[in-house]
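Please review this one.

:::
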Amino acid sequence: MKITWQDFEKVDIRVGTIIKAEDFPEARSSAYILHVDFGSEVGIKKSSAQITNLYTKEQLENKQVMGVVNFHPKQVGPIMSECLVLGFYNQDKSVILATPDTPVENGARLL
């Protein structure tokens, strides 16, 4: 399905830094709760991420990631997911996070 440029402009993808990763034992599949700082304009948002097979909580803290910040919040078990952290499926269906290859200011928007 093709989209227009105007459709793409509606998706607000920003860079943020994971400031905290915690276990999410209530999740159906193994997951973390991520707290991501998307800068002063967007703030800190929570997300559930099924990335426990490739990342430890320690590896995630201070890692920059890309995320969609303008979805409506979604209830995921006992937490309200406020953003979608982006990633790609590997051949084994594990998720590899989408990250900038050099540091970027939190809140920078994908153009």
